[in-house]
Amino acid sequence: MEKDIFDWQKEEDMLDIESFQGEKRRLIQPTSLQDPKLEKLKEALVYWINSTLKPEHIVVQSLEEDLYDGLVLHHLLSRLAGVHLPVEEMALTSAAQIRKLEVILEELDTRLGLKDSALIKWDIKLIHNKDLLATIHLLVAMVRCFQPDLDLPPNVKVEVVVVEVSKSGIKSDVQVEFLTEESDAAIDPLNNSEREDPIEALLKLEAHKVNTVKKAILHFVNQNMSTMGLQVADMDKQFADGVILLLLIGQLEGFYVPLCDFNLTPVSHSEMLHNVTLALDLLNDTDLHVSTVDPQDIVSQDVAATLKVLYALFKKHKGK
Fold it and tell me: What is the pTM of this model?
């Protein structure tokens, strides 16, 4: 039976058994490779990469062939997180590519908040060996972290053959592995069929999913505030006085909020409330309505209220 598992591979791609003795390999079943859902996911990821890297004139055609050397991953990390790593632009030798991937994946794993190695479904060797399963897992994780509102085909799953080689022989097992969640509503609450408020729906999810969305919004905020020399580290607290919120709205909407209209260094509750009320009024004037948010809630550092306002700005301006 074990022999049948390898019959589908091309002769030039046959596994060298001795090269991974004692390891486990995960191989997508050939029937799953023909699944239209998997093809749609691959197409969506290719489109996302090419859209993201369009300003740099980088075009990806194949997830298997175009990401193994680290160049595309390096540029994605730079564009999405503003990270510029000390790696060579073009790594031509296998050794140089592996060194480059080591630096990139270490930074990516940190950015993705993956501290438990058991949860990481990719590594340097797999990516460099053009492993499709590992590559897709990595890209989906990047989308969920940096652009959680992006629609990916839901409920994409594949049959995976887990092969373990030892001196006594080959053991194999077939498992079903999910590449995307059963419903995108788990990540993008806007797809919730009950049309529940997206942030209210988000806050009902697991903590790591809430943090994923918060990280993406925080990255969006800091990208737009960096030109003013400002940075937000604590989303739950730094918007309570309304100052950064007003500056962010002005930056995104392209207008200047006169300093005489708000308190730049508010110290009292009433001054903070004035700032936040002005910010919400400005949002309403730009047809960005957050009617369910009370200014007092933001001043009181209510997480849901703050997220509702920032998410509304994020949804409107994320593509700019």
Answer: 0.53
